[in-house]
């Protein structure tokens, strides 16, 4: 199944914050992080809607970085909206609070 993917402004901001964090850790690590997360998002066009829901959204955990991609899926319209890209090393209550705001 091929899904169209939209990345919300909130998720773009999350990605930018994470990119900046990793760039401060090591040269080009931010770019490596960005490229890897984008490649994982692209996989959702083929494998979307399969991930378990957490805090009301499907959650795909990155295999390489401690981040999760939270997304909403519309199977009928074949559409995925990335609502957040969050560091999993924070308190789950913080993640839940962040995700319960209007993210679309």
Content of β-strand:
25-35%
Give the number of helices. 3
Number of strands: 5
Mean pLDDT over the residues: 94
Please mark out the parts with pLDDT under 50 across 5 or more consecutive residues, or reply none. none
Oligomer: single chain
Q: Termini, distance in Å?
A: 23 Å
Report on this model:
This protein is an alpha+beta fold and about 100 residues long. The protein has three helices and five strands; from the N terminus they run E-H-H-E-E-E-E-H. The chain has helices spanning about 10-25, 30-45, 90-100; strands at about 5, 55, 55-60, 65-75, 80-85. A five-stranded mixed beta sheet has the order 1-5-4-3-2. Strand 3 (about 55-60) and strand 4 (about 65-75) form a beta hairpin. Helix 1 (about 10-25) runs antiparallel to helix 2 (about 30-45). The protein is globular. It starts with a strand and ends in a 5-residue tail after the last helix. The model has no long low-confidence stretch (mean pLDDT about 95).
């Amino acid at each position: 199944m091929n899904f169209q993917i939209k990345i919300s402004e909130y998720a773009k901001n999350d990605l930018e914050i994470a990119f900046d964090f990793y760039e401060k850790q090591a040269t080009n690590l931010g770019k490596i992080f960005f490229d890897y997360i984008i490649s994982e998002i692209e996989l959702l066009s083929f494998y979307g809607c399969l991930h378990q829901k957490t805090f009301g959204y499907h959650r795909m955990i990155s295999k390489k970085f401690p981040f999760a991609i939270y997304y909403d899926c519309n199977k009928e319209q074949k559409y995925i909206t990335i609502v957040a890209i969050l560091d999993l090393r924070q308190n789950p209550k913080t993640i839940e609070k962040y995700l319960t705001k209007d993210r679309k």
